[in-house]
């Protein structure tokens, strides 16, 4: 019988997506004031992984 791998990453991603604006407002109030929150945005969590993998040491 194999044990399923614990999923620690997805709950954090979901929380960040749901509370992103509140997080920015709390930790970076000046930046929050300068962002147009009426515009749509897209989470690019997989793109960073790709860039890091392709970078040279």
Q: Layout of SSEs?
A:
Elements (H helix, E strand, L loop, with lengths): L8 H19 L1 H6 L10 H10 L3
Description:
It is a single chain. With 57 residues, this protein is an all-alpha fold. 61% of the residues lie in helices and 0% in strands. It has 3 helices and no strands. The radius of gyration is 16 Å and the shape is extended.
Shape label: extended
Percent helix among the residues?
55-70%
Question: What is the CA-atom radius of gyration, in angstroms?
Answer: 16 Å
Mean pLDDT: 83
Total helix count? 3
Give structural attributes.
single chain, 0% strand, 57 residues, mainly alpha
Summarize the model shown.
The chain has about 55 residues and is mainly alpha-helical.
């Amino acid at each position: 019988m194999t044990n399923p791998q614990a999923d620690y990453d997805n709950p954090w991603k979901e929380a960040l997506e749901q509370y992103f604006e509140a997080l920015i407002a709390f930790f970076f109030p000046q930046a929050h004031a300068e962002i147009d929150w009426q515009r749509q945005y897209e989470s690019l969590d997989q793109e960073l992984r790709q860039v890091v993998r392709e970078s040279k040491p």
